[in-house]
Each structure stands twice: as C-alpha cells, then as structure tokens.
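Customer escalation, tier 2.

The customer says the design service returned an amino acid string that "doesn't look like it belongs to this structure." They asked us to rerun it and document both sides in this ticket. The original structure tokens are below, unchanged.
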C-alpha cells in the first residue's frame, strides 16, 4: 500500500468551534487514539479518514482532522473508563493529586471532581487513601497513563 500524498501539515493548537465553518462531524477518540497519528479510521457518518501526521503529533479534542466537501471532521474526547475522584477539601485534593502524579497519571479537573484513567493500581491507591471516588464512563481530556509531559 502506498501512503504518499497522505501527509498533512501538523495541526496547531486546539481549534475552537467558532473557527470551524459548515457542518461538523465529531470523531470520538480515546487518549491513546489521539496519539495514533498513522492509521485509517471511520467517522460516525461512515467516511473513512486516513491519518498520516508526523511522529510525535498529539491530537487534542477540537483539532480539525480534515475538511472534506465542506464538512469538518473534528477530534472529540471519547468516553473512557475513569475514576471520578471527589476530594472533601483542598488538602485532600492536593494529597490525592500528588499521589496520582506519582503513578504518572493525569488528574484532570471536571467540575467539582477530578478524573483519572481507571486501572487497578489507581483503585488501590484511592481506596487506601480513603478518598471518595466512583468508576464511570466519561470523556477524558488528559493523556494516556504511560505518557509523560515533555
């Protein structure tokens, strides 16, 4: 299979909805999917998109993948298995954020709670700390657990 002609320029920062004109199709992607920039994927409207972006490109929710026939295909955050953490006060929030950070996980604010990608070590940590949390499916705007900030 020949992939020439598929390379697109590196996308800039997150695209705001006001910058997109015409119909928009949101393509839901998990935190891991947003790192996979060389692949084929099917948009919710059935259109096949081919990504061939430079290595290291990280797609963020709101980034425009492609504009085809006046329709903008935009990255969205897909629902993922997350821990919804509800610290009772600021000191507890700081302690939990520090501990979750030591597991190399993103701890993303979401209203009155924080979200982190769920896994068994995270559940064990939160249980041992005694902080209130639930396991839910929600859109996650952070990075995968294995990715470190550069």
């Amino acid at each position: 299979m020949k992939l020439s002609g598929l390379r697109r320029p590196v996308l800039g920062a997150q695209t705001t909805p006001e910058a997109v004109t015409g119909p928009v199709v949101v393509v839901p992607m998990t935190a891991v999917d947003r790192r996979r920039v060389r692949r084929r994927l099917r948009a919710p409207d059935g259109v096949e998109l081919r990504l061939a972006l430079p290595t290291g490109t990280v797609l963020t929710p709101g980034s425009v993948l492609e504009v085809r026939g006046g329709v903008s295909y935009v990255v969205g955050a897909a629902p993922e298995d997350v821990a919804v953490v509800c610290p009772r006060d600021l000191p507890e929030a700081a302690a939990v954020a520090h501990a979750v950070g030591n597991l190399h996980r993103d701890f993303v604010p979401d209203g009155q709670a924080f979200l982190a990608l769920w896994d068994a070590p995270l559940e064990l940590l939160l249980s041992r700390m005694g902080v209130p949390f639930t396991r839910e499916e929600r859109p996650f705007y952070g990075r995968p657990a294995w990715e470190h900030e550069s």
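Tier 2 assessment: The sequence is consistent with the input. Confidence is low (pLDDT under 50) at residues 1-18. The helical segments are 90-102, 120-129. Sent an explanation to the customer and offered a walkthrough call.
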